[in-house]
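Here is a protein:
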Amino acid sequence: MEELVRSMAEQLLRRGSVDDEVIRETAARLEGLVARLRAFGEEVLGETLPAMAFDPGHPAYRVAPGLPVAALERLGATGGTGYGAARPVARPAGADGAARPAPRPAAGEGTTRPVPGAIAAGGTLAGPAEQAPGGAPVAGTAEPVPAGGPVAGRVEPAPAAGGRAHGAPPGQPWAAPGRRVMAGGPLAGMSAGELVEAFRTGRLGVEEVTRYVLQQIEVLDPHLHAFVTVTAEQALEAARHRDAELVRWRRGGGEAGGGGGEAPGPLFGVPVALKDLIDLAGVPTTAGSRVRAGHVAQASATVVRRLEAAGAVIVGKTATHEFAFGATTDTPFHGPVHNPWNLEHSAGGSSGGSGAVVGAGLLPVALGTDTGGSIRIPAAACGTVGLKPTYGRVSRHGTVPLSWSLDHTGPLAATVADAARVLEVLAGPDPLDPAALGAPARGLVQAAEAGATGDLRGLRIGVLADWARDRIHPEVEQAFRGALRQLGDMGAELVEIGDADLPPAGVLTLVNRLLALAEGGAYHAATLARRAGDYSQEVRIRFELGQFLLARDYLLAQRLRTELARRAAAVMERCHVLVVPTLPIPAPRLGQATWTPAGAEPEPVPEALIRLTAPFNVTGQPALSVPVAVGASGLPLGVQVVGRVLDEATVLRVGAALEQARGPLPR
């Protein structure tokens, strides 16, 4: 123990020579303390939530920031976060099609500046966006999807990729040759709201729709590999129960309180899937890992009970990256989830299974969790809506944690209105979760409906311009410019948030990773000691790293979080929402390790995928990813709308406006 303490003092703490007596006494006390803690056996605590809670709406986070951005920038905008590989693959010499570096504008002065047009490729301000490279439609130009299609769904070649190979492997376009998978038939793509209305009016039966969905899953999931468990028997039983409820309700006159049973709830009959971190009683929760093979949930999570109380029909569990600690949903226990737009590409993660089933049109709604972007990343990759609510808005009880102080649960949905509908059901206090907030979530569907009118007059939208210029793929940049143009056309006032307002995204992402590594490492410490070989190497290394972070490092990250939350709150006093691309790249190929931004060194794909999403888990703000275009590669592209704490209504309003301006995606 003495040698360990001496080594840590010199190498980890970077201390000079330490007195031998101090080393001996410290080692002896440490040995006694650790012996008591390890004798306890922390695994007996099971899923007990720790007595700590981050309330982003607390007045303490609205006081003036104490540090200038320059001080925070000492953490560095790039570099190791412990998430991606420590030694990324070297940049290939003469990479074909590499984009030329664009000149960076002078650093801003920290003021909020009007944005007369959209952010252009070189970081200047420009007017309307043009068509994306290769002739692919940009936001607002996609044609409606032709009606019909085979009931069994469509497995067809993905559209040929146009444009040049920006950041792709040498001599290759970004998109790999492949096929895409989309649900077909008259029910494919129906929203949750449309289904509820069809059930209420008798145009459709719940069992009829449930059988149709299960048939589609049986045909298409062998290509997507998105489901871990399909609960067909339970789903059909629940569907028959819902149909019986409808009969009683109609016999009573079809009115609430009419003596004929309860009126259909807001998700009545809607088929829903759950990320396989969320407990459903009697069904395995594997968390994507061999470590939990054979585990069966004894009770349902709070979010599941609320879904079922609102009338939803649970049809199964979707794949997750192992213990949600990855952004590609590709782990040995389950294998990779495939992107429905191109099966050779990643669906994102860690809620990749939920993203794929909604993106393919199999379901209108699936639940995911989000610690560093795990709802929004697959939403952007798969062309769906993804909503991370305010931290604490939705209970975590019954959900396998990754990082207690960063974890959020929320919907991936076909439409913004569907996401609003689901959040109204899920939100609210929970005595089983000490971080759950009591603030009600009302009027969200109405907010989405208001946004769909296309009127955003009176809203100030902050553009995270520096973030949107830093290592961004040209297709993403093109789509983002188009979205900014549309927001301005709908009456919003666009203002640029300068580099003295918020530090680089990499600073907030570093804090996110420190918290996730430390908390995830603590949760898995006992299991790692017994069953380390049952983890995939990638995820094991991340959790092992968490074992070596000191308490001072963890508390430093939490103190930095306070400062960053205050700085974000100060920015939000000047605008109603912020906008930034959800991902800096289109969905990567399966197994792709790095990408090469213009004029920069290769970036590990896992680092790239979380770079623009992880900051808002740190600040706890609500964040919505909305698909705004399909790029030249044939892959969907998303924009992130970030709001004030507990103001999901405005976020959904802006998201619905972008959705309406875009029109139907060309599936």
